Amino acid sequence: MIYLGKIGVILIAITVVCTGCWDRAEINDIALMMASSLDLEEDGRYYGLSQIAVPSRQIDNSPQATKSYYVESGIGINVQEIVQHEQPKLSRKLFISQRRVLFIGEKLARKGINDIIDHFSRNSLSRLRTYVLIVKGGEGKDAIMTDYPMEFVPSEAVREIEKQSGGMTATFRDLFNAASGEGIEPVLSAIELTPSPQKPKGSEPVKKTFNLTGTAIFKDLKLLGYLDNHDTQLLHWVTGKLKQGIIIVQLPNKKHNVSVTLIESKGVIAPTVEGSKVKFAIHLKGKGTIDESNTHLDFSDPKNLHLVEKELEQLIRTETEKLIENVQKKYASDIFGFGDTLHKKNKKAWKKLKPQWNESFAEADISVDVDFVVKRAGMTGPSLQLREQEITK
Question: What pTM does this model have?
Answer without folding.
Answer: 0.85
